[in-house]
Amino acid sequence: AADMRARLLCVCLTAALLAYYIYTPIPEDVEEPWKVMLISAAFRAVRDLAVVADRLGLMHYMEGLMLITDTDYVPPTSDENVTVTDTEFSNIAVRLYLPRKPSDGLRRAVVFFHGGGWCLGQAGMKSYDHLTRWTSNMLNAVVVSVNYRLAPQYHFPTQFEDVYLVTKFFLQRSVLSQYGVDPDRVCVAGDSAGGNLAAAVAQQLLEDSEVETKLKAQALIYPALQTIDLNLPSFQENANKPILPRSLMIDFLSEYFTSDPSLREAMASNRHVPLEASHLFQFVNWSNLLPEEMKKGRVYTSPVYGSPELAQKYPGFLDARAAPLLVSDAQLRGLPLTYILTCEHDVLRDDGVMYAVRLRAAGVPVTHDHARDAFHGAMTFLLGPTELAVGHRLLNRYIEWLNENL
C-alpha cells in the first residue's frame, strides 16, 4: 500500500508539474489555444534547461537556447521549383534560392534576415527554409537568406555589418545581372531581430553614396526597432505572453551588445539610458505615437535615467543601426515602400506601430497590417506538429503584399 501511495504521489506530482508547465493563460482571441499552449510550454522548458546549464557552468545560456536552432536544421535541398545552395556573398554565409520557372523578363529579389534575437536562428532552420523557399516559388524571385554571425560569440555591430555587406554586395549591378535580377525590384525583409536588421540596412543604404541601386521595398515582420524604452504599453501588457516574454526580449537585447549582466539588469528595470541621451526619447514617446486604442488607458511617465557608465562601455544600444526608431524624421524621408506586420499579443507590437506612424508622417508609403489574434513569431509555425493556421494567414498576407508591390 505504501508503494502504491508513493507511486500515486509521483504520478500526481508529475501531472501537477506538467500542468504548471503546459498551462499558460492564452488570450481568448488566439486560435488553436491548446497548440499554442504546448508550443509555449516547449519553449519555456528549453529556456529553463538553458538557465540550469548556464548556472552549472556547462554552457552559455544562449548556446543552450541555440539547441532549438540546431535540431531544426535542414540542408540546402533543391526541388522542382527552386534551386537551393549554400554559398558566400562577401565572405558571409548565405542560402540562395533561385527559381527554376522561366521568367518573361528580369526577376524580383528579396534579401531576407532571420529572427532569433541576434543570438539564435539560421537560414537553414526548417521554418525559415520553408518561408524563403515559398517566397522564391510564389514570387518567382531570387531570395538571399543571410546567415549573419550571432551573439554571444559576436556582439553589435557584427550582425548588422554582416547583413549590410551581403546586401551591398548583392546590389552591385554585375551581381544582380548574374542572377537575372531587376535592379528596380529588390526588397529587404526580416522577422523580429531580422526585421530590426532590415530596417537598419534600409536606413544605412540611404546614406551610402557607393550604392547606386535603390531598394524598392522593405518588409518588417514584428520588428524590434528600439532599445531605450522597455516599458512601452506592449512590453507591460504582454510581459508574460507566449514565445517572447519581456524577460527573454531583454536577455536578447542586452546580449546583442554585451554578455555583461549589468546591462541586462539595467534594461530589466528600464534604467539603462543616461541623461545625456534624453533627446532620443522623443522618437519613442508613445503618448504621441500610439493610437488611443493601443494606449489602453495608460499614462506616459517620463523616463528614469541611469548612470552614464553603461552607455560609455556599450554605446551600441544608443546607435540607430541597432535601434532604427532613433533617427530624426528627416532621415526617414527617402525610405522605400514599407510593409510592417505587428501582432497584438507581442512585446514588440508598439515598436512596429510607432515606426509605421513616423514613416507615414515622413511621407513614406506604408502598409501596416495589425494581427489582433496573433503573437510574436506566429509566422514561423508553418510545418509539422507546430503548424498554426494563423502562421499561414500571416505568411499569405506578406507574400500578397510583396507580389503587389515588388
Automatic annotation (TrEMBL):
PANTHER family, per the entry: AB HYDROLASE SUPERFAMILY PROTEIN C4A8.06C, ALPHA_BETA HYDROLASE FOLD-3 DOMAIN-CONTAINING PROTEIN
SUPFAM superfamilies associated with the record: alpha/beta-Hydrolases (SSF53474)
Record protein name field: AAAD deacetylase
Protein family (similarity comment): Belongs to the 'GDXG' lipolytic enzyme family.
One Gene Ontology cellular component annotation held by this UniProt entry: membrane
Keywords in alphabetical order: Disulfide bond, Hydrolase
Classification via PROSITE patterns: LIPASE_GDXG_SER
Domain Alpha/beta hydrolase fold-3: 110-269, 319-379
Signal peptide extent: none
Active-site residues, as the UniProt record annotates them: S192, D346, H376
Gene3D superfamilies: alpha/beta hydrolase
Record-linked Pfam families: Abhydrolase_3
GO molecular function, a single term: carboxylic ester hydrolase activity
Organism, scientific name: Nyctibius bracteatus
